[in-house]
TrEMBL record:
Protein name, per record: O-acetyl-ADP-ribose deacetylase
Molecular function as annotated in GO: O-acetyl-ADP-ribose deacetylase activity
InterPro entries found in the cross-reference section: Macro_dom, Macro_dom-like
CDD domains: Macro_OAADPr_deacetylase
Residue ranges constituting the Macro domain according to the UniProt record: 1-171
């Protein structure tokens, strides 16, 4: 199962997978960080489709086409803002990953790439977020045999190191 999980250091918009996940904000109308990079690479058609969705609450996810991206789809999910950890943040983050895997399954997608949701502007500590990401990957792989490949995109060498260490603990 572990062989289906890959850690990639770089830019998620370059990946050729069935879906890349966007760490969006609840308006789904674009923002900074990975969200800005995805909208720039996908082109204005992505924003036009997002406008028709009408937003997304924290912990939920919505799927669109990928437009000019090499990825066929974008799954937009809204992570929690870190407020110290006692405001339901872990449950919301877990729910983001679960809803992304659910949408992937419902859409018949086999390969998916995730950024480290909530760990940028939203301030979620990387190590804690990474553990949730990998635990949910394990449970998604256990429950969905169609899931062939999960890529975790680390934007820095430090983040890649944390993913690798956490892999040893979780898998
Ligand atoms: P959030 O608001 O959910 O915290 P951010 O976009 O600020 O979202 O950050 C989420 C993570 O995505 C951070 O770890 C950040 O370093 C990373 N990131 C930013 N740009 C990219 C990119 N082009 N590809 C992959 N990861 C990215």
């Amino acid at each position: 199962m572990r062989e289906k999980v890959e850690i990639f250091q770089g830019d998620i918009t370059k990946l050729t997978v069935d879906a890349i996940v966007n760490a969006a904000n609840s308006s789904l109308l674009g923002g900074g960080g990975v969200d800005g990079a995805i909208h720039r690479a996908a082109g204005p058609e992505l924003l036009a489709e997002c406008r028709t969705i009408g937003g997304c609450p924290t912990g939920e996810a919505r799927i669109t086409a990928g437009y000019r991206l090499p990825a066929r789809h974008v799954i937009h999910t809204v992570g929690p803002v870190w407020q110290g950890g006692n405001h339901g943040e872990p449950a919301f983050l877990r729910s983001c990953y679960r809803n992304c895997y659910r949408l992937a399954r419902e859409s018949g997608l086999a390969t998916i790439a995730f950024p480290a949701i909530s760990t940028g502007v939203y301030g979620y500590p990387m190590r804690l977020a990474c553990r949730i990401a990998l635990e949910e990957a394990k449970s998604a792989l256990e429950s969905n045999p169609e899931l062939a490949r999960i890529v975790f995109v680390a934007f820095s060498p430090e983040a890649a190191g944390i993913y690798r260490e956490t892999m040893e603990e979780v898998f």
